[in-house]
Design brief:
This protein has 18 helices and 27 strands. The protein has about 500 residues and is α+β, with helices and mostly antiparallel strands. Helix 5 packs across helix 6, helix 6 crosses helix 7 and helix 10 crosses helix 11.
Length: about 500
């Protein structure tokens, strides 16, 4: 069938599909690497599985047996992409893996990572978490010099810069390339002989290192990947540090210019799993502290505290304990939804929100309810949730947000809507209150958010999405959000009307 001229029957069928999208911000990806392990690919699979929350569009693994690199990647979740047969084909004692959510580059299979290339440096695979803010200009320059790009992801610019190096030493080529790029990157680079882990000088995105009892060295975006792989946490990869592991052992270098640290505060608020340690701090403890500060700053008389699951659960618990108001599970979130659902011909009000959430009436009926959430972007989903709670019989609804108002997009690896789409950037608190139809709404203060991190006095954070202060400058012309950097208009390997 010609997709440009679909039948009216198929058009009607397509139009009845509801795309269910969470308005929460999305992180770009998870990365995992392991060296000197007889089951490298199996452990990489487990590590990626534990970090599925960091990217659900595609997953990939590259392994090496010391001679060749073996790659497999596909669209979808980790446990559907990799079969036992595929993992057995990814032979070798070293591997890197990647879960992707696109912030730069479209959601196509050819953009799946890890990337694998051949050059005068030999076979190289690369997995990237972050976002390069000068990738558009670098790409245009490289193309004018003859480079041919196979993807639309910013990560590929690093590979081309490495290939242009006159040095045959991979470490020199990596260092030269990273001195040119700007922005956020935690990288794992695999050759047939070595594994390289490197983090940008600002330290935007996390990267941790651990060791298994068999002596294998492991790297991951979060420590939750260590728990499932029986890995002992050693330390964080330092901002600006490059760690190289080969058959001769492990060495640490600092080849990049030193810069002020800008650790992503949103890792604590929303992205990371509560059982992880990020930047040396317990995510669970920080989120609970965020809720406690919120209760102290924004008290209100109420009968029950309920979270918007799942990311606000711990903050709501902290609010409850600090305020003395009982914590209850008032919203149930479905964990089995995909992106697309067929809506009945007879329309259901707020269908998308009802697929994802449902209210426990017994918890909220005739109650003064405090609803705790970690953040609000556009406000559309929050408005529907509040409507559902109101219809379930709540007498009063007070919204409490365990972070400051989100007023600016992110260009360092988080897909946050544009300035014009962010409700807190375009509306006053009173206007947001009226739009959400709540009895009150309050956000956590920026200073309190930072204090919730126990080591905040020694750690420096990026909070550009809350303050508008970007630690690494960039050109704003033509940049709405990260996805506008590279655009694709073709439909690849799918037919929307089937």
């Amino acid at each position: 069938m010609d997709s440009k001229n679909p039948s009216s029957k198929n058009i009607d069928s397509f139009q009845n599909h509801v795309i269910v999208q969470d308005e929460k911000p999305k992180d770009e990806c998870a990365i995992f690497g392991i060296f000197n392990c007889s089951e490298a690919s199996n452990f990489t699979y487990l590590g990626l599985y534990s970090m599925q929350h960091r990217g659900q569009e595609s997953s990939g693994i590259v392994s090496t047996d010391g001679e060749l690199l073996y790659r497999y990647a596909n669209m979808g979740l980790v446990n559907t992409v990799f079969t036992e047969k595929k993992l057995k084909e990814l032979i070798g004692t070293a591997a890197i893996g990647h879960n992707r959510y696109s912030t730069t580059g479209a959601s196509f299979l050819r953009n799946a990572q890890p990337l694998r290339v051949e050059s005068h440096l030999g076979g190289i695979a690369l997995a990237h978490n972050g976002n390069l803010i000068n990738s558009y200009d670098l790409r245009k320059k490289l193309e004018s010099e003859g480079s041919i790009f196979q993807t639309t992801i910013d990560t590929e610019t690093i590979v081309h810069l490495m290939a242009k190096s006159k040095s045959k030493d991979v470490l020199v080529a990596v260092s030269e390339a990273l001195k040119v790029v700007k922005g956020a990157y935690s990288l794992l680079i695999l050759t047939s002989k070595m594994l390289i882990a490197v983090r940008d000088p600002n330290g935007f995105r996390p990267l941790v290192m651990g060791e298994r009892n068999d002596g294998s060295i492991v790297f991951a975006s979060e420590t939750c990947a260590f728990d499932i792989t029986d890995t002992k946490y050693i330390r964080d990869v330092e901002p600006g540090e490059m760690i190289v592991i080969n058959s001769f052992g492990m060495k640490s270098y600092f080849p990049l210019p030193k810069k002020s640290h800008s650790l992503c505060i949103f890792e604590y608020i929303y992205f990371s799993r509560p059982d992880s340690y990020i930047f040396g701090e317990s995510v669970y403890s920080v989120r609970k502290s965020l809720g406690a500060y919120l209760a102290e700053e924004m008290p209100i008389e109420a009968d029950v505290v309920i979270p918007v699951p799942d990311s606000a659960n711990v903050a709501a618990l902290g609010y409850s304990e600090a305020s003395g108001i009982p914590f209850r599970t008032g919203l149930i979130r479905s964990h089995y939804i995909g992106r697309t659902f067929i809506e009945p011909d007879q329309k259901i009000r707020d269908f998308g929100a009802k697929i994802k959430y449902n209210v426990i009436r017994e918890v909220v009926k005739d109650k003064r309810v405090i609803v705790v959430d970690d953040s609000i972007m556009r406000g559309t989903t929050s408005r529907k949730i509040i409507k559902m709670i109101r219809e379930a019989g709540a007498k009063k609804i007070h919204m409490r947000i365990s972070s400051p108002p989100t007023i600016s997009p992110c260009y360092y690896g988080i897909d946050i809507p544009t300035h014009s789409e962010l409700i807190a950037a375009t509306h006053t608190i009173d206007e947001i209150k009226k739009y959400l139809r709540v009895d009150s709404i309050s956000y956590l203060k920026l200073e309190s958010m930072l204090k919730a991190v126990q080591g905040y006095k020694k750690l420096k954070f990026c909070h550009a999405c809350f303050s508008g202060k970007y630690p690494v400058g960039f050109k704003t012309s033509g940049m709405g959000n990260q996805k506008s950097l590279f655009q694709e208009y073709s439909v690849e390997e799918t037919n929307l009307y089937d």
